[in-house]
Amino acid sequence: MDNFSSYREHRGFDWAAFLAGILMIVAGLFLLRHPGKALHAFVLLFAILSIVQGFVWLAFYSHFHYYISLSWMSIVSGVLDILVGILFLYSYDAAGLTLAYLFAIWFLFDSISGIIVSWHMRNLSRFYFWFSLILNIFGLLIAISLMFNPALSALTLIWLISFWLLIFGVNEIVVAFARR
């Protein structure tokens, strides 16, 4: 108990959480206001991460090729990651389209997985089964529409990230005040 009471006496306003919250809100509003620039930033970030990941795979091979029999796969993965990263750096349109389709495919697989899980819930509760099944079918329809309209998919991705930043930014500000 003494540790807890001494902690309560020494805590104050959390400036780090407050500033993080402000930055998240500003970033979220910027993404909503400039979706084209946001998509370009995502493409650039994905390209850089892909190239870095490629070098990580190549380094993995150089360290573990004597110990792991399938380590040659890390060379293939590394080269492919680097090539994808370079392609994304030089072809913004292809990269944006790829990210849009990846987002739609992710939505599709997540909805299909949710439908499968829903069937396992039918013995637990009819309400949760139907609720989950209907939401996941709705998600499946959204995923299919996103696959046929990649521009909508890219915009939806930006909106989701923007709203996530706004929600967690507000949460960080609340946490900053709650800790005083």
Give keywords.
180 residues, globular, single chain, mainly alpha
Question: Can you describe this structure?
Answer:
With 180 residues, this protein is mainly α. It has one domain (15-178). The protein is 88% helix and 0% strand. The chain has helices at residues 2-10, 15-33, 35-64, 72-90, 92-121, 126-148, 150-178. The longest helix is centred in the N-terminal third of the chain and has 30 residues, at 35-64.
Write a concise synopsis of the structure shown:
This protein is mainly α and 180 residues long. The chain has helices at residues 2-10, 15-33, 35-64, 72-90, 92-121, 126-148, 150-178. It is 88% helix and 0% strand.
- How many alpha or pi helices? 7
Query: Which parts are unreliable, with pLDDT below 50 for 5 consecutive residues or more?
Result: none
Round the mean pLDDT to the nearest integer and report it.
84
Quote the beta fraction.
under 5%
Structural class: mainly alpha
Q: Helical percent range?
A: over 70%
The N- and C-terminal alpha carbons lie at a distance of: 19 Å
How many independent structural domains? Answer: 1
The succession of helices and strands, N to C, reads HHHHHHH
Report the biggest beta sheet as strand number plus sense, adding barrel if it closes.
none
Number of strands: 0
Instruction: Report the radius of gyration as a whole number of Å.
Output: 22 Å
**What shape does the CA trace take?**
globular
